[in-house]
Amino acid sequence: MSSPLPPTYGPPISLSLAKQVMAAAEREAVEHSWPMAIAIVDSSGHLVLFEKLDQAQYGSVTVAIAKAETALNFRRSTRIFEDAIASGGLGLRLATVPTLTALEGGVPLIVDGQVIGAIGASGMQSTQDGQVAHAGVAALEQGTP
Predict the structure, then answer these.
(1) Which end of the chain, N or C, is surrounded by fewer C-beta atoms within 10 Å?
(2) Could you give the CA distance from residue 76 to residue 65 in angstroms, rounded to a whole number?
(3) Alpha carbon distance 73, 118 (integer Å)
(4) Phi/psi zone of residue 105: left (φ > 0), alpha (ψ -120 to 50 degrees), beta?
(5) Strands 106-111 and 114-122: what pairing?
(6) Burial of residue 133 (number of CB atoms within 10 Å: 0-12, 13-18, 19+)
């Protein structure tokens, strides 16, 4: 049985749409008083928006960007990689992949079946980072035709 192909890359996310995604992610973080760094990259891998909320740890800046880049480059959630490494065995091979960040909190942004960018969030437990990133994804899904 073969796995389904990942979505194709599409045009880069617009600044307007990136702002919508960022606003929702930021709201989620603020609602829970989570000091987060949040990054949005476009489908070419370039940073479109970045926010570091007050008191976010400095290390979260590079981690948020790395999570977004990983989700974009592999066209899947970074949670998949975190789970694979946590399960051990063959999943541990992922630790050898350069530029792969295997921590939940990076999610591709998909419109009409195409990856237009990705969001990465860092600052709390990886499940909380994922919650913030998914809040941004939900805003994208609600705001696009």
Answers:
(1) N
(2) 15
(3) 9
(4) left
(5) antiparallel
(6) buried
H and E: helices and strands count for the chain: 4, 5
Instruction: Name the average pLDDT for the chain.
Output: 94
| CATH number (domain holding residue 41) | 3.30.450.150
Spatial separation of the C-alpha atoms in residues 121 and 92, rounded to whole Å? 23
Give me the count of residues in the chain: 145
Could you tell me the residue range of the domain that residue 136 belongs to?
A: 8-143
Q: Is 3 among the domain residues?
A: no
Give the residue, 54 or 145, on which the prediction is more confident: 54
User: Is pTM beyond 0.85 here?
Assistant: yes
